[in-house]
Amino acid sequence: MNTVKKGLMTLLGITLIGTQLVACGSTSTSDSTKTADPAPSDTKETTTTDTAKKDEAKPVEITWWNFPSFQALDGEVGKYEKQIIEAFNKKYPEIKVNLEMITFEAGPEKLNVAIASNTAPDVIYDAPGRILDWAKKDLLAPLDDMVTDEVRKDIPEALWKQSMVGDKTYMYPINTAPFMMGVNKTVFEKIGALDLLPLDRPDRTWTFDEYKKALQAVKEKAPDIIPSGFFAKSQAGDQGTRAYIANLGNSPFLNDDYSKIAINTDKAGAALDWIRQGVKDKLVVSGSESLTGGDVNDLFLQGKLAITLNYSPVLRAQNATLKKAEFEDVLVPFPTIDGAKPKLEPYLGGMAIFNNGNDAKIAAAKKLIDFIANDPEWGRKDLIQTGGLSARSSITGLYNDPEYTYAEQAREFYTNPPTIVDGYAEVRTFWFPELQRVLLGKATGKEALDSFAQKADEAIAKAKADAGK
Q1: Does 152 share its domain with 263?
Q2: Fewer beta carbons below 10 Å: N end or C end of the chain?
């Protein structure tokens, strides 16, 4: 199999890749979880009825790097992961798992350095934006041998497209959630404008005009609250701004065969122009060009923002203990011009294995992934701890919460996300600079989207050509 070392030269010049997840401000911790010295054995899969064989399992040590994919226990980042490892070692005492927690801010750069220096971890829990890029650079071990026919059929095609390169699977899908908007429901209740939200509709779809009326009501009746958020700094959270503009303009982000950018339409350009005007009209947060997704999320947590545009059930769960003001937050889809069904990008979390050239480590990493995703007891617990929905269609009803019930339904709005496009890692770097040009008055919305499309199309074509060599 190919090793990470073989991909060294392709990674030496790589720039920092922003997170596909929402921007978060978690604290980095590093830890190593050890097991008792096991008796020697072979590395093959063992069964509970084959005790002698299990006793002979050869010890193997793997390193697991993890973003804060699971909610912290007792305020301690990584505490839940330690519990996973402890339970895993009861089944596989011969596998020692070294855990290192990394942050969404510093983690991507740390991974790039580790890959370039041939010190990548063995296994990681991450999202398609980075994982598919690594797979295309031949840095990962394929996982097809651990995907059963049952699992293959139970996970929607849109999610498999985010987990595969060609006909090979490189990410094991675990949790998902639709990226939507978050609303401070309490604000609308206090100003008597709850009826302006689409919460009484089963699918909660709404029009651009209805959305603007809701923002105007906040501006007039709650002048100390910012009606809506927007941001254009860094790369994190780009899926929020991307889907926001695409839906406001009823425009797809990519064409049907994912070969070109399609969001540079007149309607999407007009939506971007409206956002710039919204800043002037105090319907959109001021200084958007210099705000990150994390900055806007903080405003929402402080109760200073009525509607945020980069939200999901996962972020809602993470925010539950981080709120600096008491309010109820609910989920709504992005509005569209005529109230048509929105197109929502799916968040997907899953695990991948770096091909570090050691078959025993790869086999051990697969056992850890299978335990986290499919163990009869821990599989369900792990899903709930992510705050997300199961990637598997048959696993529902994990939460007794109407917002999760709605999120389950909103999966019908899933569309294929840009993360599957060739050259995505470079494509996303062109997005926010163009948004900033509009917000600073240096370009119209259409001009900025045309400029983005030109640069992105060139990156896509180049990536396709390189892949064909």
Answers
A1: no
A2: C
Please check whether residues 122 and 196 belong to one and the same domain. Answer: no
- Domain total in the chain: 2
CATH number at residue 306: 3.40.190.10
Which residues on adjacent β-strands are paired with residue 60? 95
**Do residues 173 and 186 share a domain?**
no
Contact present, 179 and 327 (Cβ < 8 Å): no
Kind of pairing, strands 389-390 and 180-184? unpaired
Output the CA–CA distances (angstroms, integers) from residue 47 to 44, 51, 87, 463, in the order listed. 10, 7, 16, 44
Average pLDDT value for residue range 348-371: 97
The reported pLDDT for the residue numbered 28 is 36
pLDDT value at 410 more than 50: yes
Mean pLDDT of 325-332: 97
Could you tell me if 59 and 105 lie in one domain?
A: yes
Q: What is the pLDDT of residues 134-168, one digit of tens each?
A: 998 999 999 999 999 999 999 988 899 999 999 99
**Is residue 328 located within the same domain as residue 368?**
no
